[in-house]
Specification:
The protein has 307 residues and is mostly helical. The chain is 81% helix and 0% strand. It has twelve helices and no strands. The protein has helices spanning 2-22, 29-39, 44-47, 60-77, 83-92, 96-123, 133-180, 185-193, 199-214, 218-229, 232-243, 248-306. It is flat and about 85 Å long. Residues 42-57 have low confidence and may be disordered.
Length: 307
């Protein structure tokens, strides 16, 4: 019994250490924005070379980077784009190679933990497992751990996209107001982006600045930004405005209409969330009422059953 408890504690400690060592540290949104800009800046491929790890630093870093680079090359040769994961990572501040490195190392950790778990169950629990059970358990653990970074990136990116969409609706209204004051789109876009201080408008400002320095159309740059971070509203808006950019009145009306549409979608989403929360509260109240009735009726039922 003591050996089983000790082995279970050791297995849990190993799992905890793997999760702690492989999980990335949380960084601020401004730092993540700087990392996103650096990835898409000119010459980013040369700047993306891994920096040497200092003595006593994170020794998992080179392993994750090598595994991620190798897997990225294999996927590129086979034409696997992983577009959804790339869009999610563009909002979380991590590179595609870093995410793939985490996936590979976590899968390896899951494989080892599956084999160790099978050994603990068979030895300490005195349970005769089938011949292929350890391999199946190890593969299941590895598959679950392999997809954990995808789920984490998807949840974090969903929150960031919702925040970006809220800021985008206000930004489009500001651009329309600037254009109503006889400002050209080339002036209205950066002027409206300078009003806010949040990271969504900072990202838009940086995109417009890079487009101006490169001589590109600001609407094309915004459409590319929407494609890169997975915000379909911005991508479609940039492509639509690029077709009518010569007519200022049509641009202003399109911006106003799109801002109103985004606000209606956000209001509908908030109403749906409120309805779900209200429904869950009703279910909780019903369960509490049933529990109270069972608490009051239990003594009477016990007394009747005695006779």
């Amino acid at each position: 019994m003591i050996a089983a408890v000790a082995l279970g504690g050791l297995l849990g400690a190993v799992l905890f250490l793997f999760v702690v060592r492989l999980s990335p540290p949380k960084t601020s949104p401004l730092v993540q924005l700087a990392q996103l800009d650096a990835q898409h800046a000119p010459g980013a491929a040369a700047a993306a070379a891994p920096a040497p790890v200092a003595a006593g630093g994170d020794w998992w870093g080179p392993v994750r980077l090598w595994a991620g680079s190798w897997l990225a090359q294999q996927l590129a040769r086979r034409g696997v784009a992983y577009t959804t994961l790339r869009q999610d990572l563009a909002l979380t501040g991590r590179t595609f190679e870093q995410a793939l490195g985490r996936k590979v190392t976590l899968a390896g950790a899951g494989l080892v933990l599956g084999l160790l778990g099978s050994a603990v169950i068979g030895w300490a629990g005195d349970i005769a497992l089938p011949a292929g059970a350890p391999i199946v358990l190890a593969v299941v653990f590895a598959a679950v751990m392999f997809f954990l970074p995808d789920l984490e990136a998807r949840q974090e990116a969903a929150k960031r996209r919702a925040e970006f969409r809220r800021a985008l609706g206000a930004y489009l209204d500001l651009v329309a107001l600037e254009m109503a004051g006889s400002a050209a789109p080339a002036e209205a876009l950066p002027s409206a982006a300078r009003i806010g201080t949040g990271w969504p408008l900072a990202l838009i400002r940086d995109t417009l600045y890079r487009a101006t320095r490169a001589g590109r159309s600001p609407w094309t740059a915004l459409a590319d930004l929407g494609q890169r971070i997975g915000v379909g509203e911005l991508r479609d808006l940039g492509q639509l405005i690029a077709l009518v950019s010569h007519d200022g009145a049509r641009v202003r009306s399109t911006l106003t209409a799109r801002a109103q549409t985004m606000r209606r979608h956000e209001l509908a989403d908030l109403q749906g969330r409120a309805g779900k929360a209200d429904q869950s509260m009703r279910i909780a109240q019903i369960l509490i009422g049933l529990g109270f009735i069972a608490f009051l009726g239990y003594p009477a039922v016990v007394a009747v059953m005695r006779f």
